[in-house]
Specification:
Oligomer: single chain
Keywords: Magnesium, Metal-binding
Cofactor: Mg(2+)
Order of helices and strands: EEEEEHHHHEEEHEHEHEHEHEHEHEHEEH
Helix content: 25-40%
Distance between the termini: 48 Å
Pfam family, one: MR_MLE_C
InterPro entries: Enolase-like_C_sf (IPR036849), Enolase-like_N (IPR029017), Enolase_C-like (IPR029065), Mandelate_racemase_C (IPR013342), Mandelate_racemase_N_dom (IPR013341), RHMD-like (IPR046945)
Number of strands: 17
Protein name: Mandelate racemase/muconate lactonizing enzyme family protein
Radius of gyration: 20 Å
Length: 389
């Protein structure tokens, strides 16, 4: 019998679900983003789930779409009164019932937040960290790379270099920069990143799908000399043939931040169109579905490195996920770390919502051993960041 079987609170039900929109707007001069454009600020829809035992779990949905909040409310109504049992079964049932809506889009974003909240509440009910309920921990610390070098309103290269230098000075062993603005710009930005971080650092470039395949091929021919760890989303997420053409570049390919559920990742992974699968827990279907995607990647011997560009809950959920992912196929010698994306852009949702930040040792994140996701929400910060008041 499981050691948790005697826990009476494991039979608790979902009593209340509240959707909470939060936002951190940016002044025009301070906006940043990618080759696809600048963001006016950072936003998300949070989920506060309370059980019949008074335990509270938190979730986060990607972005600040009012439609996502409406869907959280709609899907949450169906969950109220049901047993607290987080698993991929719930999302699978949802997709079967709503197959006319496809297995992607905002209803999966909303479901992702609910799934994360259910895991947080369930693990707190059992006084365990989430990763322990998923077979972890497989590691006690997680290596991070600096996700920085964003596109800005003026794209001043002096400012670009200065921002990169800040992360290099803090000792980050890897960096990801934004490119996709044209071949000449791509080469210059990649060269500056390599000069700033030195020959030993991991260097990733992110196109955010702004190119056609022929444009991406020309860009990769120009930047590959700088030694790339991977090229992220060189073409749009649905351009599978474009990814196939880009295989001849010899540069590892990564994608997944705009891909939903295991079904979206199936062909990318099984077709060996990517070398690195990058689901985002706040949109792919939550922790449950991200875990399935990690298993798919392991089955086809593909690397796994989640996309992380949300707030404190997104970060904490991703740490719990990675804490339970094996180092397959490696044993004593791991050629490259299992990377965590450390967003370096201005983001109060990341820096202020947690009462205490995730533990760190240098640039490494330490896996929490406290119940649930491992963070507590700062209610005063939450009240300040709410966008509905």
């Amino acid at each position: 019998m499981s050691e948790f079987a005697s826990e009476p609170r494991a039979q608790s039900t979902i009593a209340r679900i509240e959707s909470i929109p939060v936002a951190d707007p940016l002044d025009v001069a301070d906006r940043y983003g990618s080759s696809r454009g600048l963001v006016p600020g950072r936003a998300a829809v949070l989920v506060r789930l309370e059980t019949s035992d008074g335990v509270v779990g938190w979730g986060e949905a990607w972005g600040g779409s009012p439609a996502a909040r409406t869907l959280v409310d709609e899907l949450g109504e169906r969950l109220v009164g049901t047993p607290l049992r987080p698993s991929s079964n719930w999302l699978t049932g949802l997709l079967q019932q709503s197959y006319h809506y496809s297995s992607s889009g905002l209803h999966v974003v909303a479901a992702s937040a609910l799934d994360i909240a259910m895991w947080d509440a369930f693990a707190r009910t059992l006084s365990r960290p989430v990763h322990e309920l998923m077979g972890g921990p497989t590691r006690d610390r997680i290596s991070t790379y600096a996700s920085t070098g964003y596109v800005t309103i003026d794209n001043d290269l002096g400012r670009f270099r200065s921002v990169l230098q800040e992360s290099a000075d803090e000792g980050y062993p890897g960096v990801k920069i934004k490119i996709g603005l044209g071949v000449a710009s791509d080469e210059e930005r990649t060269r500056i990143a390599r000069e700033t971080f030195g020959p030993g650092a991991a260097l990733f470039v992110d196109f955010n799908g702004n190119y056609t395949a022929d444009q991406a091929i020309r860009s990769l021919e120009a930047v590959r000399v700088h030694g790339l760890g991977w090229a992220e989303e060189p073409v749009t997420p649905d351009d599978h043939e474009g990814l196939r053409l880009l295989r001849r570049s010899g540069v590892p390919l990564a994608a997944g931040e705009a891909v939903y559920t295991r079904f979206g990742f199936r062909d990318l992974i099984a077709g060996r169109l990517i070398d690195v699968a990058q689901p985002d827990v706040t949109k792919c279907g939550g922790i449950s579905e991200a875990r399935v995607i990690a298993h798919l990647a392991q089955t086809w011997n593909v690397r796994f490195s989640p996309h992380v560009w949300g707030g404190a809950i997104s970060q904490a959920a991703t740490v719990q996920l990675l804490a339970g992912v094996p180092t397959y196929p490696h044993t004593d010698h791991q050629p490259e770390p299992l990377w965590f994306e450390m967003d370096r852009g201005t983001n109060a949702l990341r820096d202020e919502l947690a009462a205490e930040p995730l533990g760190r040792d240098g640039t490494d994140l330490l896996v929490p051993r406290t119940p649930g996701l491992g963070i507590e929400i700062d209610e005063k910060a939450l009240a300040r960041l709410r966008s509905d008041r």
